[in-house]
Amino acid sequence: MPTPSLLIVPARFKSGKLYSQVPTSGTGDFTVTRATSATRVNASGLIESVASGIPRLDYFASGGVVGCPALLVEPSAQNLVLHSRDLTNAVWSGSNVTTAKNAVGADGVASGATTLTATAASGTVLQALSHASQSRIFSAYVRRVSGSGAIQMTTNGGTNWTTVTISSLYTQVACAAQTVASGTVGFRMAVSGDVIEVDFTQGEVGPVFTSPIPTTTAAVTRNADVVSVSGAVSGAIGQTVGTIYCEFAYFGRPSVQSGPIFLRETSLRGLSIGTAGVTNINFTSRNAAGSTSLAIVTGSVQLNTYYKVAIAYDANGTAAGGSEASGVVAYVNGVQTNIGTFRVPDGVLSEFRMYGAPAASADNDPFNGRIRAAALYTTRLTNAQLAALTTP
Description:
The protein is mainly β and 392 residues long. The protein contains one helix and 34 strands. Strands 2-3-4-24-33-26-27-28-29 form a nine-stranded antiparallel β-sheet, with no helix packed on it.
């Protein structure tokens, strides 16, 4: 396997910087911008806050098993729920449910979370939010202490309820997004006597919930993660022939194009990997004359599922190592998924952004997920090499 011209496996960092493994000269080191603190899952599986500008190495836990670290990259978000960790506060209204702030939180802190005990069937704990009509989602970390009745969540005052699946371990769960004005969020417990513990409640604008944003007396905003390198990195980008590799998972399903990699010129044109709505993951090459798009994962994009994707492109229209007479070939998890045409960029690709798109872009949204690794090659890898590179 050839040596990549740029390789980033998120591991070494300092404030404002994420170091690449290749090249070693520093020209491949990424600048990290986020002007607020943010949370991650640490190596112990607990929620932890990190300072502004610190890359978030996230050890997302599935089924109680801490995973491999990955770079958590998210758009800006605001938590509109007040006293997000204390459901005993007066901003929360309980009916047939008792509340006590005595549970160990999802961050491991004693009395950091709230215990809810249903004293009658269909007991509720609710908080009214005031805002303009917009799409909003409500999420929380929840675990079951006792009982087996349905636990439901709402973002529109109970007009709609979503039954969520919980266990004895804290899991971030959410109700279905709804377009509401000044809607009420909260929980309903179907069976009297059931007990759950709740932490990091969150009401956000949009169809996707994100990592916890703790609040007390006022709404709190977390700024977007922007992770990019530009300038001399152009030498590590295959300008007309090359290969892009990325291992990533979506944390939340976007509603428009959003992806983990964007190689761009000074304009908004270039090469990108991202979703097309909520159905496909596409590779897009764009220049002033237009764009071509290749579906590389078809069907509904699975959340928190890692995809190992490699895209090889050749402006000459001939893909080495295979019979396909095409400028682009895609491999996902060891399998060739599609071939297509390649649109040559107008100028020099001089920026590598793990963000989805520049903040000013009108046709892309920021990535919302985790990136385990990314690499660039200035050569078109053979099909056999692409299969080997992406095999799980």
